[in-house]
Amino acid sequence: MTSYDYVVVGAGSAGCAVAARLSRDARGLLIEAGSAKPPTALPRLAWSLYETSANWADKTADGTLDLPRGRGVGGSSAINAMVWARGHRSSYDWGPGWTFDDLLPYFRRSETAAGRDPVLRGTAGPLTVSPALHQHPLAAAGLEAALEIGHPEAKDVSGGLEEGFGWPDLCIVDGQRQSVADAYLPQDNVDVVADAFVHRIRMRNGRVAGVDYNDTTVDCPQVILTAGTIGSAQLLQLSGIGPADDLRALGIPVVEDLPVGENLHDHALFSVKYDSTRPVPESLYNGIEVIGLAGDLQFLYFARIPIGEVYGIYFSLMAPHSRGRLRLASPRPEDRPLIDPAYLSDSRDMETALTGLDMARALGATRALAPWRGVEPGIGDAKAYLREDLSSYYHYVGTCAMGSVVAPDLQVYGIEGLRVADASVIPDIPSANTNATVVAIAERAAALLNDERVSG
Ligand SMILES: Cc1cc2nc3c(=O)[nH]c(=O)nc-3n(C[C@H](O)[C@H](O)[C@H](O)COP(=O)(O)OP(=O)(O)OC[C@H]3O[C@@H](n4cnc5c(N)ncnc54)[C@H](O)[C@@H]3O)c2cc1C
């Protein structure tokens, strides 16, 4: 059997990027629970992928909200909405080595963003990103609406330095989705095994020893978990790394008592929907072609909602205070974990959402949107409306947070050779859609591994 220098668990956004950037003289094994070729769709039909095997299709523990996440090579980047944006630089302060400026080389390394400022943006990275070339008339009217009521126009809303409204970059190339797997793989020194669910990390004397997937055991001195915010926290707990009391209650022997699964958070998403007076043309892209950052709120225009002639002004809380948790339902790997993002559990988040609702309605009432505006929605009790309308923006982070579960070098506290390098390590969510940040984390993780290899 081939021996590997590194095993990477989970071939999503982070896993594909980490594996692809491993040193050329090292061999890596990338293990993915889902298919090698998950179902795909045109960018404007992204939502249809939720109904396929490319989605784990989790729900919140109380069963009320859908929590899609990608399953298959490409992970969530193969089913996501393709927005490519960094959070504002002020939203990255995760500890030594993890400010926006520290991450900038890795953001740049991941992308080719033609037409943007080459000092700020990448010019030779694997992901080719660009804004919508054909501007959808409703998205264009949405941008006008923002300017009409005094929001600034952002020259590069994906770059991380500006607030305001503009056309974000999208992971769409020649009319097709581009996942992180499409951009980074294959690589000669990386073997990919798909349909392989890792159900245990093996450890010996405070060191990682390998992983078990399906009926197979792989020995390896270096394991990098990139199974995502849900998958990495689930796997660590199944392997005895987590809150000791919870693990003992399930009969799982405790290897390391760490707050794995806590600090789960996400961007809560809300909307105001309007009937349109005229047919809304089909989008050629992803339907989220203009976004705007205003303080702790992001606004986005959905050019077309697939139920009749309706458009939405969506808004999301970019700096949520609410924190939830992920726990195992049982010690059986095949049982889905209990996921409770605890949206709006901190009252400050409801206050921000109320502000967002007022701001979204102000955008909706502008002259710029008058030609489209049909019936204005009746909101009634605003707090009740927001609770009812709430959905996930699918940006789950934080369950293996830097500083409490992993050190700044991404090593799990107490277990040598075991690292986590995906969305789960983000201690405090940045103010944008998370994919670009996750890929930058993965790029930095690979650089750390490669430096360590050189220095022995
Ligand atoms: C529907 C949706 C829309 C989104 N839209 C956007 C967007 O437009 N822009 C944006 O920036 N972000 C978006 N996001 C968020 C973004 O895509 C994610 O934050 C990012 O992809 C997470 O990367 P990751 O590597 O942490 O996890 P993932 O990409 O989810 O990868 C985890 C991988 O690990 C595999 N895995 C899990 N458990 C195991 C196991 N035990 N054994 C083996 N393999 C395992 C999974 O199958 C998966 O392939 C969206 C997410 C979703 C779900």
Mind sketching the topology for me?
Elements lengths: L5 E4 L3 H8 L7 E4 L26 E2 L6 E2 L15 E2 L15 H11 E2 L14 E2 L8 H12 L15 E3 L2 E2 L1 E2 L2 E2 L2 H5 L5 E4 L4 E7 L2 E7 L2 E4 L3 E3 L2 H11 L2 E2 L1 H6 L6 E2 L4 E3 L3 E8 L12 E7 L2 E6 L7 E8 L6 E4 L10 E3 L6 H18 L17 H8 L1 E2 L25 E3 L14 H21 L1
Helix pairs in contact: 1-9, 2-9
The structure holds flavin-adenine dinucleotide (FAD).
Keywords: FAD, Flavoprotein
Cofactor: FAD
Family: Belongs to the GMC oxidoreductase family.
Q: What does this molecule look like?
A:
The protein has helices at 13-20, 100-110, 137-148, 180-184, 228-238, 244-249, 347-364, 382-389, 435-455; strands at residues 6-9, 28-31, 58-59, 66-67, 83-84, 111-112, 127-128, 164-166, 169-170, 172-173, 176-177, 190-193, 198-204, 207-213, 216-219, 223-225, 241-242, 256-257, 262-264, 268-275, 288-294, 297-302, 310-317, 324-327, 338-340, 391-392, 418-420. The strands form 9 sheets. The protein has a 6-stranded antiparallel beta sheet, covered by helices on one side. It has a 5-stranded parallel beta sheet with strand order 12-2-1-16-27, with helices on one face. Strands 13-14-15 form a 3-stranded antiparallel beta sheet, covered by helices on one side. A hairpin with a 2-residue loop joins strand 14 (207-213) and strand 15 (216-219). The chain has 456 residues and is of the alpha/beta class. The chain is 22% helix and 22% strand. Flavin-adenine dinucleotide is lined by residues 9-15, 31-34, 68-72, 75-77, 79-83, 197-198, 226-228, 231, 235, 394-395, 422-423, 433-436, 438. Belongs to the GMC oxidoreductase family.
